[in-house]
């Protein structure tokens, strides 16, 4: 193999490895948010069900942890939050919080 081709392949591998961690996290957040979007519209609109856009990462995380801990606040959100691990709550909160940061 020619040296140029070999170093190009090596560079590609390094990029792939260094990006996969952050990308996997963002993918998980996006996938989870897609399940939220069947009830909560992610464009900030909607009636009845409160919008979760613009709440911020900390507020989202705390709300999900509270829903997971207690059935009394809301049965639907309790069931949803129960299915999420700490890590999943963190990544979906991070993803959804970012959706609000784009000025419309
Ligand atoms: C089956 C429908 C449904 C799905 C799916 C759903 N939610 Fe909800 N969510 C609701 C309803 C209904 C409420 C209002 C509950 C209440 O009045 O306490 C709510 C409330 C919330 C709140 C509180 C909003 C506020 O203003 O305090 C947050 C945060 C939230 N949901 C986040 C999520 C996230 C994140 C997901 C995805 C992992 C999700 N929800 C998926 C129905 C849903």
Automatic annotation (TrEMBL):
Signal peptide bounds: 1-23
UniProt keyword terms in alphabetical order: Electron transport, Heme, Iron, Metal-binding, Respiratory chain, Signal, Transport
Gene Ontology molecular function: electron transfer activity; heme binding; iron ion binding
Pfam name, any one: Cytochrom_C
PROSITE patterns xref list: CYTC
Domain of life, per lineage: Bacteria
Domain Cytochrome c, first and last residues per copy: 24-100
Cofactor(s) it depends on: heme c
PANTHER family: CBB3-TYPE CYTOCHROME C OXIDASE SUBUNIT FIXP, CYTOCHROME C4
Protein name per its UniProtKB record: Cytochrome c domain-containing protein
Species, as recorded: Mesorhizobium prunaredense
